[in-house]
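ping. complex inputs:
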Amino acid sequence: MVGGRQLGGRLLRLYLPLGFFLVAMLFPFYWMAITSIKPNRELYNPRIMPLIVHQPTLKHYVDLLEQTNFLTWTYNTMLVAVVTTVISLVLGVMIAYPLARMNFPGAAIVAIGVAATYLVPQPLLFIPMADIINKLGLGNTLSAVMLTYPTLLIPFCAWLLMGYFKSVPRELEEAARIDGASRFQAMLRVVLPLCTPGLLSAGIFAFTLAQNEFLYALIFLTTSEVRTVPVGAITELIRGDVFYWGQLMAAALLGSVPVALIYSFFVDYYVAGLTAGAVKN
Amino acid sequence: MAVGPASVARPAPVTGRPLSLRRTVDRESVFSWLMLAPGVLFLLAFVAYPFFYGMFLSLSERRVAQPGVFVGLANFVTMTQDAVFWQVTRNTFVYTIVATLLKMVGGLGMALVINQQFRGRNLARAFLLLPFIVPTVLSTVAWMWILDPTFSVINWSLVNSGLVKETFSWLGNATLAMVSIIGVNTWRGLPFYGITLLAGLQTISPDLYEAAAIDGAGVTQRFRYITLPVIKPVLIIVTMFSVIFTFSDFQLPYVLTHGGPANATHLFATYAFDIGMSAGVLGMGAAVALAMLPALAMLIVALTLYLRRE
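pong. complex structure:
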């Protein structure tokens, strides 16, 4: 009797709501996946039960790879994400380290400035930025996005890393300094290795944010061979009123795979970064 | 603070000899500013400068590939006489307020559910966060197909379960289009609230609940007097972040509705994009984007101060 009541309570408080959340959060991905393997005659026939695939096909994937520049877009997306992540991590460390561990004139104002730039949303800046990039002659190059993405990522990395840098006891650094290490060497050999989890969190986050970026890529990348996956999918798989749904879903799924893979390996670091930095979305 | 060891460690300058380069570079303030310089210069050049340049643009009559003319506040005056601008303002506030409330309540619910003990909890947490990590444009494309006028799976389910006779035009009707972009924004942002609030909940010791229960506190009282006070700081930070980026959202409405039908889902960012980029009227576009500034500035200042106080 008691057991039954407990199970009933658990069903109501745990399993039902958990099931609801899982279905609500994951259904779009299921829908993406099955749409990408449905033949067109199933996709566009409202009489066929749409929740399952009756005759799976890989045609949309083949078309996506053969008829579009999807592989180029993927390469561009990865290249930009890796380059901007590295730049942002290095500059983020260089900003966070003195702010977290040094006393110097101007520290407070720099800290406030970094926090403010972290919170300034892109839509406030994109119009002047477009003009600046054009004047620099960088329109329609990957350099344009490599230069602009770090404006979003550096403040984020710096903010996240400051917390980690503060947690390393000063005595460790002092010990290295007594042994003759310069401040730079003490940072490189003592503090940074101890902050590896923070560096991983910041790196993974910067990477996913870079993959998510759309506005600058949409404005700056205007020909197919320089586009990233989101811009390529939106501009080339939707032509006027014609939507290539099968290919769109295949592109969406394949485009999500790199982020999902990295996330699945480092989920704990990702969550740590999320909760430490309370992140941009 | 470690004042003692620091003063011991600091090498005393040798009198009568000029400081070597190495020692100069190693001085705390010199080292700090050398480290900061590249990043700070970069942010000045690509955040601060565009920000002020945007203000300058908003005061000019300026089109793409043409020289600008200073017009003072003319763009802002024209803007306030534009009915669409006021519609966009209302849209943005409705979108931000409703989506934020839904994400907050739903996220708190999600956090309370996962905070219970069960097998596979970490796996569930990992899966529930997926909407937040997948690139927005790509998941929004999936939603476009879910909300398709002819082949919407939601319509199919409603009709086939006998709940409705007529299908809904999710993205074609002004009200439903707003409901749709709010729904998709909630779907994507809810896990962010859920997982961060969960981290807040996990800092509460179970002993506290037990002690309260022994003292006769009910479920509601325990939530009100133990749970809420502990997660309040997390909730405030998460909400302010989320409000800033919902208020200035671009990707989701741009992809899902392009601001339509008839401007019903245009937000500040998408409207500024249409004017500044699609039509190439940079000055007016910059002015529309800057219309976000008063509300954003208040939030940014509040959150910056709050984060600094932490």
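DSSP finds 16 helices and two strands in chain B.
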